[in-house]
Amino acid sequence: MRVDRRDVLGLGGLAALAAAAATRAGAEEGLPEAIARLGSMTEGLEPIAPSEHLARIERARALMAQEGFDAVVVGGGSTLLYFTGLQWGVSERLLALVLPRDGELVFVVPAFERGRAEERIRVGGEVRAWQEDESPFVVIAGALRDRRASSGRIGIEETMPFDFSDGIGAALPAARLASAAPVTAGCRMVKDAHEIALMRRAGQITLHAHRAVFASLRAGMTQGEVARLSAEAHRRLGVTGGSLVLFGPDAAFPHGTSKPKALQAGDVVLIDGGGKLHGYASDITRTAVFGAPATERQRRVFEIVRAAQQAAFRAARPGAECQAVDGAARRVVEDAGFGPGFRLFTHRLGHGVGLDGHERPYLVPGNALALKPGMCVSNEPGIYLPGELGIRHEDVMVVTEDGAESLTPTTGTPEDPAVV
């Protein structure tokens, strides 16, 4: 199910017609031509099917047996979506999935939301509702007793709010509660071919969005104006998305500043963003120099960061520890005189990407977790010089059987960074 660059470039006449229509509509809206001419790139890829969710549940059960769990309880959010296809946020009213090692699934839902939940559930299971004057934790405990799991080891999905996990524990005094991460992250960290295809296309979409935004830059623009162009570019390409945009010295703050400046010739422009295709995220950063040739200093830092990213690509392979991949990139930065440690390369090298833009595993010193084929992680070294500039290159790479592959073409030049 791999989708490569040739697939995107050959999406066919419908995409060309859509792009032409988008250009006409965009011109009427006063959009820059590079944004206006974008058309949908989402054709040819389907969302995750119910049969795939069922296979994930069986994989979770195999891990539960391996890790000694009798059941796992999952609240609203991306892990619930991963296993069941049910998209449901977290609120003060608990909606939960009880996933026993043996027996039927149970969805525990607020009674007044039962109809809406049943409309969205894509895999089979029992639905038990709790009224506003009842405890959802007692309902969960009852479901576990019926599946002979109430006194065993119960995994609690790791992002569940403490109040919920505490309530479940109080309702199950004989149970032993633990983080379900060995099961939930154990499944989610390794992507299959369908997931990788969705992420590859999402990355290509964001790269086209970045390229269009760079082509639309004008002196005097604000970071907010450019961010709005990024959101519009993603929308026209068929996904919801957007970007963090930073100019000049502001780019020395990896996640931005509360006092942004307007764009001037000679500024470094850092654009870090992504979108989601059928739930799966992209995360790409490109850095350019606007309106003037790059200075020797800007070009040198640009090339050092690119060398660090390439070193990480070479280091990533099955069996390599997460910290070793970070170390490969960090050594390049340090050897170039921008160390030690986190002094100017101020953050970890990367993080997992999937249904969440940031998820496990994390490429960071101290993490000895070994990479496995199918893991998808960002590779985003940066150098941040306070009061001067910040440069970051970021692509998502997938671990293969014998190395790692970028899901998108990597960085070009300071004048043309968003090669597609």
Give me some keywords for this one.
19% strand; six-stranded mixed sheet; Creatine Amidinohydrolase; 2 domains; 39% helix; 420 residues
- Provide mean pLDDT, rounded: 93
The CATH class name of the largest domain reads: Alpha Beta
Distance between the termini: 21 Å
Helix content: 25-40%
Number of helices: 13
What is the CATH topology classification name of the largest domain? Creatine Amidinohydrolase
Judging from the principal axes of the Cα atoms, what is the shape? globular
What share of residues are in beta strands? 15-25%
Give the C-alpha Rg: 23 Å
Which stretches are poorly predicted, pLDDT < 50 over at least 5 residues? 1-19
SSE sequence, one letter per element: HHHHEHEEHEHEHEHHHEEEEHHEEEEEEE
* CATH homologous superfamily grouping of the largest domain: Creatinase/methionine aminopeptidase superfamily
Tell me the strand order in the biggest sheet.
4-3-2-1-5-6
**Biggest β-sheet: count, sense, barrel?**
6 strands, mixed
Q: Say how many strands there are.
A: 17
- In the CATH hierarchy, the architecture of the largest domain is Alpha-Beta Complex
Main structural class = alpha+beta
Domains (count):
2
